[in-house]
Amino acid sequence: MLNKRSAMESDAQRFDRYVDAISDELGHADRVAPFRAYCTGLLLPGERKSVEPLAARVGPTSVRKTHQSLHHFVSTSSWDDQAVLLRVGQLAIPVLEAREPVRSWIVDDTGIPKKGKHSVGVAHQYCGQLGKQANCQVAVSLSIANTFASLPIAYRLYLPQPWIDDTEKRAATGVPDNIGFATKQQISLGQIRGALAAGIPAGVITADAAYGNDTNFRDQLSNLNLAYAVNIQGTTTVWRPEEAPLAPPPRRGRGKVPIRLQRTAEQRPISAEVFAHELPPSAFVDITWREGTKAPLRSRFAALRVRPAHRDTLRSAPRDHEWLLIEWPQEEKTPTKYWLSTMDESTLLRTLVETVKLRWRIERDYQELKQELGLAQYEGRGWRGFHHHATLCIAAYGFLLIDQGGFSPSGGRRLQLAQPALPDNFRPRGSAK
Q: How far is CA 283 from CA 295, 348, 356, in A?
């Protein structure tokens, strides 16, 4: 197996085996060397992980030549990002499943703050990293996860509508002609379909409320026969467990037969938040879902079977029952989080909680990828370079996961990879003089 360690095998030898296992996805033998060099530079210590500092780390005696090679590989060369990411995922799956099966596919997006307006996809939009509207790029990702580790297997830039409509910006940054506007939910569904087609072991889809509030997104997951456990807002409407919309009324006269469900003033759905306040205190149970850095993570939860109600008056049959999961910490005056889930009716409350709380892993992934491997440090402006750099960062991250047996890469020892000495007069771009 790729991840089987030998006492006599060095880090460099294991890394070479990893590169060899991915090399077929690069499309040409000439791309293997820059792939190895770029990932090596990402894995080596250093504050900056953009192309110029990487070139100095892996080729200090020929920085210009190495820089040209790496820059061409990341910004111009036409290898397939998604093929590489899926291959990395396939190599990581045995490591994850040695501990337990893949439990979740985590849908998320991440913001990368940017100055200026010329880098591909940059716009004033919500940036999760900053927690506010800001000038940034936003990328949508899909990760595989269990309780021991996780790894992104798809990553794509979201392009706001003004970018789609601006032919000059598209041409300047190399946005492919076949890229039209797609919402983040639509991008995510494309990534999910790609993972299914590639035979990646399926897990329960987890996502935040930006995705979970979208009824069509949830319906599409069900159409793909995938279970989900997604965050929703407290304003999302549901039917109480014993209630449902009324059947269509009988036809009167010669008109069309009514097929739409009905509501009345007395029989109407309510918001998840109102429903939570109707529950007795006994409905909530203390659950500890994992160990935190300082103490076990614990809160109160309730789970009941309800029917989602969004726009069901346009339907001819009620929606199926799902789990409504509610988190209401003891010290809070109102619930803090809500989820809808199509996990099996027999699912235990603890399992529901553990599943939705697996989303912390993507936050850890992004932290590691940005702080340790330079995900947010690419200085090019083009579509291809943006995705190539992210793919190489994730490939390097995948090696750390595989090499360290499924534990957090930041918790492992520093890899011993060959690092030539830097020239005395070298100063990476953007560094203090």
A: 25, 14, 19
Residue 358 DSSP code? G
pLDDT recorded at residue 269? 96
Name the token pair of 366.
Answer: 């992004």
Q: Whole domain around residue 52: which residue ranges?
A: 11-210+362-411
The torsion region of residue 253 among left (phi > 0), alpha (psi -120 to 50) and beta comes to left
pLDDT in tens, 85-108: 999 999 999 999 999 999 999 999
Burial of 6 (0-12, 13-18, 19+ CB in 10 A): exposed
Contact 282, 251 (CB under 8 A): no
Statement to judge: residues 351 and 374 lie in one domain: no
- Specify the length of the chain in residues: 433
Average pLDDT score over residue span 383-387: 98
Residue with tokens 């409905």: 283
Give Cβ neighbours of residue 397 (< 8 Å, ≥ 6 apart): 151, 152, 365, 368, 369, 373, 409
431 lies in some domain: no
Distance CA 190, CA 193 (A): 5
Split at pLDDT 50, 70, 90, the class of 220 is very high
Q: Which of 360, 393, 424 is the last residue of a domain?
A: 360
